[in-house]
Amino acid sequence: MDHPFEHFYKGGLWLKGLNGALELLGAVLILIAPDAFLQRIAAFLTRHDHGRGGWDRVHGMLARGCGHLAGDGHGFSIFYLASHGILKITLAGLLLHHVRAAFPVGIAIFGLLIAYELYRLAMKPGVMISAIVLLDLAILTLILLHGPACGN
Fold it and tell me: Are 12 and 141 in contact (CB under 8 A)?
């Protein structure tokens, strides 16, 4: 692949693979962490009232997430993180190694991810989700440009 954006393409795939590895690590940590530990994290994050600034929202979100993990959402969270992590790691690895069969799968998965991300963006706009959509659109475009030219 001798495209001028090859480094961006590879970098984006490495980011997706790293994101998948972190999701998989999170699933393992949730699996082995006792509920009491997750509840202590939630209590720690909510012990101070930080006002109405941005950090207060972050603390609240983290506390709710930890509380959810310690409750009924435990199994779903593990499944969600592990399945997404494995999928992202596998897909990124196959695309980085130019496995021809991975290109149509990558196109379908990135298309579905972008559709879901656009839905989330419409429901709750944000800088981070916008950046993720742009990254995924760029990777999808490069997969479309380079997929058929794959030499394997």
Answer: no
Q: What is the DSSP letter of 97?
A: T
Task: Give the domain ranges of the chain.
Answer: 6-146
49-81 burial, b at 16+ Cβ within 10 Å, e below that, comes to eeeeeeeeeebeeebebbbebbeeebeebbeeb
The amino acid at 78: I
Number of H helices, E strands in the chain: 6, 0
Long-range contacts of 72-79 (CB under 8 A, 24+ apart): 74/30, 74/35, 77/27, 77/30, 78/27, 78/30, 78/31, 79/27
- The whole-angstrom separation of Cα 54 and Cα 45 is 14
Which pTM value belongs to this model?
Answer: 0.67
The residue ranking higher by pLDDT, 91 or 68, is 91
Question: Which tens digit of pLDDT belongs to each residue from 97-136?
Answer: 988 889 899 899 889 989 988 998 899 888 888 888 888 8
For residue 152, name the pLDDT band (cuts at 50, 70, 90).
very low
The C-alpha atoms of residue 109 and residue 89 are separated, in whole angstroms, by 13
